[in-house]
Specification:
The complex is a heterodimer of chains A (356) and B (360). In chain A, 55% of the residues are buried. Chain A contains 8 helices and 17 strands. Chain A is an alpha+beta fold and 356 residues long. Chain A folds into 2 domains: 242 residues, Zn peptidases (Aminopeptidase, 3-Layer(aba) Sandwich); 91 residues, Peptidase M42, domain 2 (Elongation Factor Tu (Ef-tu), domain 3, Beta Barrel), CATH 2.40.30.40. In chain A, helix 1 runs antiparallel to helix 4 and helix 4 packs across helix 8. By secondary structure, chain B is an alpha+beta fold. Chain B is globular, with a radius of gyration of 21 Å. The chains are: A alpha+beta (356), B alpha+beta (360).
C-alpha cells in the first residue's frame, strides 16, 4: 500500500522546529522514517538520518538524500508591559509579519508552554515619525492575549516563536501553509523511502532531514562529513511562477520539478538524473544556480575531500511567507524520481561520475 | 416569567459557540447575509416583530409591559471590512479592492476565504530572496497583491465575490482573538439583551448594515424605529501598547480590562450628557468597571442615530479591542461580559426622568 503523503505533510507543516530547535519536527518525522528504514539516528547538530541497507556486497557505496527540516521564525528579545519584542531566525521579510498568528514556546516556568499569539503593529503615534511605511521588525510586538504578570511568569528572552498558520488545501491539488520550505522536500524524501522499501537496491540509501539550513547549511555540513556519502542528492524548494515572482527562469507549479545546473552540481550527476527523469516521463526543468546555491548543496559539496552533489527543486510560491503554496503532484514526482534514480544505481556508478 | 432584572451574563460554551459563528462568518459591508441568517436563527422567537428593511438591516421591536416605557434603540452592526475580487489575473489568481478601512500591510501573507462557499485562498508575497533591502522598506500596496485560489481556482470564484481573513475565533487565556469582533461583539451582546430584555422599556434592536461605509444602515434603522434614546454597541481601539522609546503612552484611547468604554466625543457624535450620566451612575452603583473612551476621531452608528428625525439623545458603548480591522482583534472576555452587564443594568433602571433632566 502506498504511503499517504498528504496527511503526513499537513502534520509536518503544523509543527514547529526552528533552526537549532528542530526537536518538534524531528519527533514527527522519526516514527515515519523508522517504519521505512533499517536504522535511524540523530547527529550532533540534530539532523535525523534513516538508512536502508543495499543488497550489494560490503563495502557498499552509499548515497545521501538531504532535505532540511528546520523552519524560519522569530525569537523573543525583550518583554515590555506584557508585549514581546522580537528578532528573526532565518530570512523573514518584516512586511509579512503584522497580523500573523504564531506560537510562543515559553520556557520560563521550567517546562515549555505553547502560547498562541499574534504579531502586531503598534499604532502610528507610538512609533517614530519615519516609521509610516513597512515597519522594521524592531517596532513589531507579539501579543499572547495574557496579562503582563502572566507573560512575565511564563516567557523569557530567547524563547522561540513559530508560525501557526494552518495547513490548507487549495484548488487543483495545491497545499498552502508555513514551512513547506522545506517540509515538502522531506515529504518527497519520505515518498522515495517508501518506494525504495519495496524495491531491491544495491546501494545504501541514507535519508537526512537536516537541521539549521535556514541559518547556513549547518546540519547538512556535519551530516555530509559524518556519513561521507559517495554522492548526495540535495532536495529543496525553488521559485515557482506566480504573483511576486522575479525576472528570469521560474517554474510552473504543478507542471515540473527541477534539476539544478550550476557550480554546486556535478554535471555527470545532472545528466544522469535528467536521463532518469526522461526515461520515467517525469518533467524536470533545468534550474540555474550559476554561482553557488541557496541550499544545503553549498556545504555538502565541500565536506571532507569533496562530495559530488545533484540538486532537485520543488517549485513553490511565496517562499518564506506563512502561506507558501506547492503542488502535491510535484512532491510526488520528486519522490518518485529519487526512488527510480537510487534504486537503479549500479555498484560501479561512481566510475561514470567523471570530469570530461 | 423570568425575572429579567436578575440577568447575570456568562461566557460559557454556548456563548463561545454563538460568538464563534458570528466572528467566523463572511459578512463584508454590502453583503451581510451570513450574519443576517445567524441573527434570524438566534431570534426565531421574535420573528413576528422582526422587519428586514430595504438596506438589509434586521430590526426587532421588543415591547415591554411596564407603564410609560421609553423607546430605546440599540444598534450593533453586522458588517465587517474586507475585500472584493475585481479582475482575473491568471490561473486561480485575482486582483481585488479593499472595502472599508483595511491597512494593506495587514493583507500580506494571509489566508483568506472567498465568497459564500468560503473557498480557501491566500494572499502571498514575493520571496524575501527575490527582494532588495530597499524594497523591504516599502510597504506593499493592495494593487501589488493577488488572491490565489490554487491551480484551476478561477472556476471556484468570480469577480464581485467578497472575501475576508480566514480567521477562527480562539480563546487566548483571558482574551478572545478573532476577526470582525468589530462589531460581532455588538451583535452578540444585542442578541442576548433581546433575550433578557427588561420589561420597563421598549427595546428596539437594530442589527445594522454598512457601518464601515459611513454609518449608513443605522440611518434608515433609526428613521424606522423613531427612538427616544439611541445607543450604538460597538468596539473601539485599545491602543494600550508600549511606546517605541519607552515614553509614557497617554493616547491609549481605551485599555483592555478597563470595562465598557463610554464615548464622550468622537468624530461623528457628541455623546448626550444625560445618557452618559445615566450609564456612568448605573455602573458606579452596580460596581461594574467602565471607562471613558478618550475623545478623538472615529465614529459609530450613534453618529447616524443622533441626527435622525428631530434628533435622538445618543451615545456609544464599546468593548475595548486591540488591532481592529486586521486578521484578528484581541478583547478581554471580562470586558465583553461587563459591557452586557452594564447595558442590561442601565436599561433595567431607565425611566423618562433621565430624559426630562434639564442638564442639557
Amino acid at each position: 500500500m502506498s504511503f499517504e503523503i498528504l496527511p503526513f505533510l499537513k502534520s509536518m507543516i503544523s509543527t514547529a522546529g526552528l533552526s537549532g530547535y528542530e526537536a518538534p519536527i524531528r519527533d514527527v518525522i522519526t516514527p515515519v522514517w523508522q517504519e521505512l528504514s533499517d536504522h535511524t539516528w540523530v547527529n550532533s547538530h540534530g539532523s535525523l538520518h534513516a538508512i536502508q541497507y543495499g543488497s550489494g556486497p560490503e563495502p557498499r557505496p552509499k548515497v545521501a538524500i538531504i532535505a532540511h527540516m528546520d523552519a524560519i521564525g522569530l525569537m523573543v528579545t525583550g518583554i515590555d508591559q506584557g508585549f514581546l519584542r522580537i528578532t528573526q531566525v532565518g530570512g523573514v521579510d518584516p512586511r509579512i509579519l503584522p497580523g500573523q498568528f504564531v506560537i510562543v514556546h515559553a520556557t520560563n516556568s521550567g517546562k515549555t508552554v505553547e502560547l498562541p499569539a499574534m504579531v502586531v503593529m503598534p499604532p502610528a503615534h507610538l512609533l517614530p515619525k519615519d516609521a509610516s511605511g513597512a515597519l522594521p521588525q524592531k517596532y513589531l510586538l507579539v501579543d499572547t492575549g495574557l496579562r503582563a504578570n502572566e507573560v512575565e511568569e511564563l516567557v523569557r528572552v530567547g524563547d522561540v516563536i513559530s508560525f501557526a498558520t494552518e495547513a490548507r488545501e487549495l484548488s487543483g491539488g495545491t497545499l498552502s501553509g508555513h514551512t513547506l520550505d522545506n517540509r515538502a522536500s522531506v515529504a518527497a524524501t519520505t515518498i522515495a523511502l517508501d518506494l525504495l522499501s519495496r524495491r531491491k537496491h544495491e546501494w545504501d540509501i541514507i535519508a537526512v532531514a537536516s537541521s539549521q539550513e535556514e541559518v547556513g547549511g549547518i546540519g547538512a555540513m556535519g551530516a555530509a562529513f559524518d556519513i561521507h556519502p559517495d554522492f548526495a542528492i540535495v532536495i529543496d524548494v525553488t521559485f515557482a511562477k506566480g504573483p511576486g515572482g522575479a525576472e528570469g527562469v521560474l517554474f510552473d507549479m504543478g507542471k515540473t520539478i527541477t534539476i539544478t545546473w550550476g557550480s554546486c552540481d556535478h554535471p555527470a550527476l545532472y545528466n544522469a538524473m535528467k536521463e532518469c527523469a526522461d526515461e520515467n516521463e517525469i518533467p524536470a526543468a533545468r534550474d540555474f544556480a550559476p554561482a553557488g546555491s541557496g541550499t544545503d548543496a553549498w556545504d555538502v559539496q565541500v565536506a571532507q575531500a569533496g562530495i559530488p552533489v545533484v540538486e532537485l527543486g520543488i517549485p513553490l510560491r511565496y517562499m518564506h511567507t506563512p502561506v507558501e503554496v506547492i503542488s502535491l503532484k510535484d512532491v510526488k514526482r520528486a519522490g518518485r524520481l529519487m526512488a527510480e534514480f537510487t534504486a537503479n544505481l549500479p555498484l560501479d556508478f561512481m566510475n561514470t561520475v567523471k570530469w570530461e | 416569567m423570568e425575572n429579567t432584572n436578575k440577568f447575570s451574563p456568562e461566557f460559557g460554551e454556548k456563548e463561545l459557540d454563538l460568538l464563534s459563528r458570528l466572528s467566523n462568518a463572511l459578512s463584508v459591508s454590502g453583503d451581510e447575509q451570513e450574519v443576517r441568517e445567524i441573527v434570524y436563527a438566534e431570534l426565531e422567537e421574535f420573528k413576528d416583530s422582526m422587519h428586514t428593511d430595504a438596506m438589509g438591516n434586521v430590526l426587532v421591536s421588543r415591547q415591554g409591559s411596564g407603564p410609560d416605557r421609553v423607546r430605546v434603540m440599540i444598534a450593533g452592526h453586522m458588517d465587517e471590512v474586507g475585500m472584493m475580487l475585481t479582475e482575473e489575473d491568471g490561473d486561480g489568481l485575482f486582483k481585488f479592492t479593499i472595502i472599508g478601512g483595511v491597512d494593506p500591510r495587514q493583507l500580506v501573507g494571509k489566508p483568506v476565504i472567498v465568497g459564500r462557499n468560503h473557498v480557501p485562498a491566500v494572499i502571498g508575497a514575493k520571496a524575501i530572496h527575490l527582494t532588495t533591502r530597499e524594497e523591504r522598506t516599502q510597504a506593499l500596496k493592495a494593487n501589488q497583491l493577488r488572491v490565489d485560489l490554487g491551480l484551476g481556482g478561477s472556476k471556484l470564484a468570480e469577480i464581485g465575490d467578497r472575501l475576508t481573513f480566514d480567521t477562527k475565533l480562539a480563546v487566548l487565556g483571558p482574551s478572545l482573538r478573532g476577526k470582525a469582533l468589530d462589531d460581532r461583539l455588538g451583535v452578540f451582546n444585542l442578541i442576548q439583551l433581546l433575550k433578557h430584555a427588561p420589561e420597563n422599556i421598549d427595546l428596539l434592536a437594530a442589527f445594522t448594515v454598512q457601518e464601515e461605509l459611513g454609518l449608513r444602515g443605522a440611518k434608515t434603522s433609526a428613521y424606522y424605529f423613531n427612538p427616544e434614546v439611541g445607543i450604538a454597541m460597538d468596539s473601539t481601539p485599545a491602543n494600550d501598547m508600549p511606546d517605541f522609546d519607552g515614553e509614557e503612552n497617554p493616547r491609549y484611547n481605551t485599555k483592555l480590562d478597563g470595562g465598557p468604554a463610554i464615548y464622550l466625543l468622537d468624530g461623528a457624535t457628541i455623546g448626550d450628557h444625560r445618557v452618559i450620566k445615566w450609564l456612568s451612575e448605573t455602573a458606579d452603583s452596580e460596581g461594574i468597571p467602565y471607562q471613558y473612551r478618550q475623545a478623538g476621531p472615529g465614529g459609530t452608528d450613534a453618529g447616524s442615530i443622533h441626527k435622525t428625525r428631530a434628533g435622538v439623545p445618543s451615545v456609544s458603548v464599546s468593548v475595548p479591542q486591540r488591532y481592529l480591522h486586521s486578521a484578528a482583534g484581541l478583547v478581554r472576555i471580562d470586558d465583553v461580559i461587563n459591557t452586557l452587564k452594564l447595558m442590561h443594568a442601565a436599561l433595567s433602571r431607565l425611566d423618562r426622568s433621565i430624559l426630562n433632566s434639564q442638564e442639557r
